[in-house]
Amino acid sequence: MTKPTAVISRRSFVGGAAALAAAATAPAIGRAQGAPLRLATLTPLTGAGGSYGPSMRKAMEWVAGEINAAGGVLGRRIELVSEDDQTNPEAAVRAVRKLIDVDKVPAVMGTWASAVTTAVAPLCWESKTFLTCVSGADSITLLPHQGYLVRTQPNTHLQIGKLGEFLLSLKVKRVFVLSAQTPYAVPAEERLAEVLAKGGAASVGHVVYDREKTTYRSEVDQALRAKPDMMFFNGYTPDVTVVLKEIFKAGYTGGKVAPAFAVNQKLLGSLPHEVTDGIYTWAPSPAADSEAFKRVAKALGTEDLDPYSAQCHDHISLVCLAIAHAKGEATGTAIREHVRKISQGGGAKVDSAVAGLKLLAQGREINYEGASGPCDFNEAGDILDCKFRYEQAEKGKFKLLKIG
Amino acid sequence: MLGEVVQLVVNGLVAGTILAVPAIGFTAIYAVLRFPNFSLAAHLTIGAFAGYVANVAWGWPATGAVVAAFVITGVAGVLNDEVVLKPLRLAGPLTTAIAAVALTIALENVVRFVFGNDLRGYDLPIQRDWQVAGIRIGAQQVKNLGIAVVAMAAIFLFLAFTRTGKAMRAVADNPTLAGIKGIDPDRVARLVNFVGMGLAGVGGMLVGLDTSIDPLTGFRVILSVFAAAVVGGLGSVPGAVVGALTVGVGEELSLLVLAPAYRTAVGFFAILIVLTLRPRGLLGERAY
Predict the structure, then answer these.
(1) Residues of B with CB under 8 A from a CB of A
(2) Strand A202-209, strand A348-350: pairing
(3) Collapsing DSSP states into helix, strand and coil, what is residue A111?
């Protein structure tokens, strides 16, 4: 009596094993229908970028929540795995290793500091993981990333070019550049000198300082000796705070300009008005008039949404739409192949991932334009177009000068 | 050129004096407990934030806030040592030093949890610098210098003339002999932690007065503090002062020939050179 049973069970075992093997080799879409789609955020929750990272992550969580509420990406729920890059390349590399090796995500989104993006990018392209960042250094898109990287932040060349034109419009003649040690410090100064020279002004000196110092008196002395009528502080908030105090104490009364990510509302709140009054800031402007921007700003409970959170809103939207366009193939390579097919071209314009997913499900082509702007990318992964916002600090508040 | 050198020396002396305060704390703890207590970094931060609370929330003037920074950080130092580091000291100085690094990261995150990541500044007017014979000197720096000098003088007097100070020196010089003479090593350990970490707190606040504070304030300066203590002779209180001034002035003078981005390296070249030529540091390791 036992023998036939044994035969049946052996047969069923073989059959079961064959079914398992077939399942394992089947395309991901067949096997994982309904399984969560895991994506990674890697933002600076601590360190110099710590005032942006939490909001960037929140923007992505909000989009994921919206997509999940509308039925997910082709039926798959999005599950976000969030890590802190600590605004530190070494910590970022550890975090991204975990995201790639353990969580096996197809995309990492939201790296902020250029040094961090530069450090994690090779790990991403080597493992065919897609990386989206908000870093500006020119060198980033020059890396041999094989298309596994796009950024929504204009590069240094474009940003500094705009700054140079703005400074020329203010009729400044002698600009001194005080830079924190970053990958974009030297290219930025060179580009600025080039633009200024064309307009009859000059870059009269450049000091690159160590961000970890507690005092920059000697650097400031060096800057003052060049007798500038404009100083450009190309650093991050903690060091620029110190430098601004120092130049005020040193008696400098000329013009001041800094990127808006360094001189932000938090910096204005931590320094007396007389130190910050008059300082100009410029930044790539998110599409503040767009519905996408207004929606995410409202969801995050702020009227003054920073550009990086707007960009991160677009990162996750682009990644999800690219996966949907690839018929659910959630791999870095599929995202690479499809991201430009949903972000540019003649498809129907959409400004949210949910709307885009709906149209894609109907078999229509789309052109995503998000909270940060048109999101059109060139071959290298740079955005093609972007507006800039120019502001000036006055009594602890920013006054908008122009967007253009 | 001469004016530039004088200005750099002045800047270096000011930076060095501020560095000297936590460096004394670091070296005093090393002298008595014989391990490099890297959790000093977190205590610098705790001091900076304690001073911030006293100054901004309670409205105390800077001098009062410095006292608050000393006391609060001192108490925090004693508690952290009793709970975390003391049980580990039996396992040897290396284990304790590593635990101190872990402790500093843990404490830094406690500060981050309570205060957040944002930069904060003290509620003090920022004054323009004075120009004396072409040399620029800051009013706040002179006050910082004053606070640092008073703190250092108080420590010297305490170690030289009080019974407790002498007990501390005795334990530092020869713990076994001090034990035989009836000095309670636990009491001395608590005391040196209170004073050492209190000084770290004052140092953190002095750093913050001139700049701004965030949870990484202490972490940024700890390597320079360590360099100062090692150059002066780990375990020697006057050595910490000499080391801090050497590192401070050395870093500034290096700007004559180096770009500022390389300035931090100077402190560590100083460590290499001093340890190669005088392995015990400039003033040796006698506690006093």
Answers:
(1) 4, 7-8, 11, 14-15, 18, 112, 117-121, 125-129, 131, 136, 138, 140, 207, 210-212, 214-216, 220-221, 252, 255, 259-264
(2) unpaired
(3) strand
Domains and CATH numbers, chain B: 2-277 (1.10.3470)
Distance CA A100, CA A80 (A): 13
* Residue of A52, A176, A181, A210 best to disrupt the B interface, most CBs of B under 10 A: A210
- Closest Cβ–Cβ partner in B119, B121, B138 for A249: B138
Q: What is the residue range of A139's domain?
A: 34-155+288-368
Residue A22 covered by a domain: no
CATH number of the structural domain spanning residue A324: 3.40.50.2300
Domain count, chain A: 2
Q: pLDDT tens across B103-145, in order?
A: 999 999 999 999 987 778 888 888 888 888 888 888 877 887 8
In a domain, A378, yes or no: no
The pTM of the full predicted model, rounded to 2 decimals, is 0.72
Contacts of A252 in chain B (CB under 8 A): none
> Crossing angle of helices B2-33/A217-225, nearest 10°?
170
DSSP-assigned states of every residue in A34-93: TS-EEEEEEE-SSSTTTTTHHHHHHHHHHHHHHHHHTTTBTTBPEEEEEEE-TT-HHHHH
Q: Chain A: residue nearest B265 by CA?
A: A210
- Write the pLDDT tens digit of every residue in B167-191: 888 888 888 888 888 888 888 889 9
User: Is the same domain home to A40 and A147?
Assistant: yes
Q: Are A96 and A109 in the same domain?
A: yes
Q: Confirm whether A77 is domain-assigned.
A: yes
Asked whether residue A222 falls in the same domain as residue A357, the answer is no
Instruction: Kindly state whether residues A181 and A235 are assigned to the same domain.
Output: yes
